[in-house]
Specification:
The protein contains 6 helices and 2 strands; from the N terminus they run αααβααβα. By secondary structure, it is mainly α. Strands 1-2 form a two-stranded antiparallel ribbon. Helix 3 runs antiparallel to helix 4.
């Protein structure tokens, strides 16, 4: 089979699989109790964030949160594509990352620690605590309620990644802030 023909055949299988996934989502998940929970987990944290946000630091905090969204979404898609985990139920059909987690809960909690723990020592301690909560409470809970299933992954693997995520993004945002202040 020629490469072009093989690629067309693979694309046809992807189209068929996507159609099956859309039909399953429409017939078995959308507007269920679990779907409403995912919707709430996507929207509510942003309202809470706005209420408690230190608006004097909005750009810095929002930049931090956007880097969290970009990084967690990239890592999530990477892990999903390598079959490390999968999502039996998603807020949106054909959306591989778990939208409420990557686009709402992760940035919400990371932006909170960034806002309230600006000194490095306290930020690192808060990051370790948050990482433990994400790894050993939120991930198992997500599995228990069927929002997430591990395949070749263990919760313990997430723990150092979550710590490094917060620390590296804080470092990046601080560097950007220094450069910005230098030129304004």
């Amino acid at each position: 089979m020629k490469d072009g023909q093989k690629q067309l055949e693979m694309q046809q299988h992807i189209i068929e699989l996507n159609q099956m996934m859309i039909e399953d989502w429409q017939n078995n998940f959308v507007f269920t109790g679990e779907w409403w929970i995912l919707l709430g987990l996507t929207i509510v944290p942003w309202f809470l964030w706005w209420k408690i946000l230190d608006k004097r630091r909005i750009l810095e905090i929002l930049l931090f949160g956007l880097f969290v969204i970009l990084t967690t979404s990239f890592l999530d898609v990477l892990g999903w594509n390598y079959s490390m985990w999968y999502y039996p139920n998603t807020l949106l059909a054909l959306c591989t990352p778990l939208v409420p987690i990557n686009y709402s809960l992760f940035p919400f909690f990371y932006m909170l620690i960034f806002q309230y723990f600006s000194e490095w020592k306290s930020f690192i301690v808060a990051s370790i605590i948050l990482s433990a909560i994400f790894s050993f409470i939120f991930e198992p809970l997500s599995e228990w309620i069927n929002f997430y299933k591990e395949l070749k992954w263990k919760h313990i693997y997430s723990f150092p990644i979550y710590i490094l995520l917060g620390i590296s993004i804080k470092l990046l945002v601080e560097k950007i802030t220094i450069v910005h202040k230098k030129f304004t």
